[in-house]
Amino acid sequence: MKLHRALALSLALVTVGSVHAAEYVTEILSKTEDHTAGKASGGVTGLMFGAIGGPIGAVLGAGAGMLVGHFTQDGTNTHDRAYVIRTPEGKERTVRSPKHEFAVGEKVLYRRKRLYPISQDVAGADTVQTGKTLP
Fold first, then answer.
1. Taking a C-beta distance cutoff of 8 angstroms, is the pair 25, 79 a contact?
2. What sign does the CA torsion over 85, 87, 90, 92 have?
3. Predicted local confidence at residue 52, as pLDDT
4. Burial class for 73, CB neighbours closer than 10 Å (0-12, 13-18, 19+)
5. Beta carbons within 10 angstroms of residue 53's beta carbon
6. How far is CA 76 from CA 39, 43, 69, 70, in A?
7. For helices 55-75 and 36-50, what crossing angle results, to 10°?
8. Which residue has the higher pLDDT, 115 or 13?
9. Does pLDDT of 65 surpass 90?
10. 3-class SS at 6?
C-alpha cells in the first residue's frame, strides 16, 4: 500500500512541473534589473558568518547578507537583465534573460521561464507564427 502512495506522489510531482511549460508569443513591456545572483551569494555568505552566533545568528546573517549582496551588485552595476512581459491571462510578469537582450516593444517567445527571439527557431514555425498557448 505504501508503494502505491509513493508512486502516486511521485507521479503528481512530475506532472505539476509540466504545467508551466506553456509557450507563447508576447511583447516586452519594460526593462528592469535582476539582483538574484547578488542576493544568493550575499545570503549564503551571511548565513555562514552568522552561524557562528547560532541559529538566530544564521537567520539574521542570511538576511543581512542578502541586503548587502543586493546593494553591492547594484553599486557595482553588475546586475543582470530582466524584462516585464504580459501573460495571456493579462497579468504582468518579470522574467530573467541572461543570454538575450531585447528592446521595449519587441515580440518575443516565452518558453520555460525564459525569453527567446522569435527569429530563433526554438519550437517550430507554426507555434511562433500563431502565438497560441500550447499545452
1. no
2. negative
3. 92
4. buried
5. 12
6. 14, 18, 11, 10
7. 150
8. 115
9. yes
10. helix
Q: Is 105 exposed, middle or buried (0-12, 13-18, 19+ CB in 10 A)?
A: exposed
Q: How confident is the model at residue 126 (pLDDT cuts 50, 70, 90)?
A: very low
Q: Which three cell numbers stand for residue 83?
A: 524584462
Q: Give the cell for residue 22.
A: 506553456
CA 95 to chain centre: 6
* Structure confidence at residue 1 as a pLDDT band (50, 70, 90): low
Distances (CA, A) of 88 to 23, 58, 59, 85, 126: 10, 41, 38, 10, 18
Helices (H), the chain: 2-17, 36-50, 55-75, 125-130
The position carrying cell 508569443 is 25
Encoded amino acid at 81, one letter = R
